[in-house]
């Protein structure tokens, strides 16, 4: 996969914001694949320009676990979920899902994915920290937090849908 610098990503977003280009035409104009352009546009809509940065990111085990469970619970495509969580590309999330399916939660919560022996040594410590985190909260607190977070996600989804609807209506008005 080709790596693109921040300037080409910004140029793509500028073309898309001009309302004169579709994802396909903007991608063709800049010589990038449509899937790549589509991913950038989706990420931009969720997170703004900061998501276009190409620096590698380090994700916590809890974040990985939450993302994988969210994908599975909501039957999302990998591409859509990657955009929601600000994960550049789909390969990373695919690896997390495979690791979760192969090793369970402990596979994602372990610190090191490169050295299996080192990972085994740290597994007990990481699980203990995670269990302590969960045990410090009562079941009712966890249920309330989960309910609150689901409500926030629903609110954000509706907000995005409303904004997209307004954007689509503005685009339709300009074409008339």
Automatic annotation (TrEMBL):
SUPFAM superfamilies, alphabetized: Homeodomain-like, TrpR-like
GO MF annotation terms: sequence-specific DNA binding
Signal peptide: none
One Pfam match: HTH_28
Top-level taxon of origin: Bacteria
Coiled-coil regions, chain positions: none
InterPro entries: Homeodomain-like_sf (IPR009057), InsJ-like_HTH (IPR055247), IS150/IS1296_orfA-like (IPR052057), Trp_repressor/repl_initiator (IPR010921), WH-like_DNA-bd_sf (IPR036388)
Domain Insertion element IS150 protein InsJ-like helix-turn-helix as annotated: residue spans: 63-112
Family in the record: Belongs to the IS150/IS1296 orfA family.
Protein name per UniProt: Helix-turn-helix domain-containing protein
Lineage: Bacteria, Bacillati, Bacillota, Tissierellia, Tissierellales
């Amino acid at each position: 996969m080709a790596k693109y610098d921040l300037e080409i990503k910004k140029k793509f977003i500028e073309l898309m914001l001009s309302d004169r280009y579709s994802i396909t035409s903007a991608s063709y104009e800049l010589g990038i694949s449509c899937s790549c352009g589509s991913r950038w546009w989706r990420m931009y809509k969720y997170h703004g320009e900061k998501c276009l940065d190409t620096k590698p990111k380090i994700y916590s085990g809890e974040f990985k676990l939450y993302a994988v469970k969210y994908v599975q619970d909501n039957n999302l495509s990998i591409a859509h979920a990657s955009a929601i969580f600000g994960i550049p590309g789909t390969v990373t999330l695919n690896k997390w899902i495979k690791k979760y399916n192969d090793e369970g939660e402990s596979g994602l919560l372990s610190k090191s994915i490169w050295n299996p022996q080192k990972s085994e040594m740290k597994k007990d410590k990481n699980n203990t920290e995670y269990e302590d985190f969960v045990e410090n909260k009562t079941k009712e607190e966890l249920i309330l937090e989960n309910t609150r977070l689901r409500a926030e996600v629903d609110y954000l989804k509706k907000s995005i849908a409303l904004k997209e609807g307004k954007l689509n209506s503005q685009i339709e008005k300009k074409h008339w």
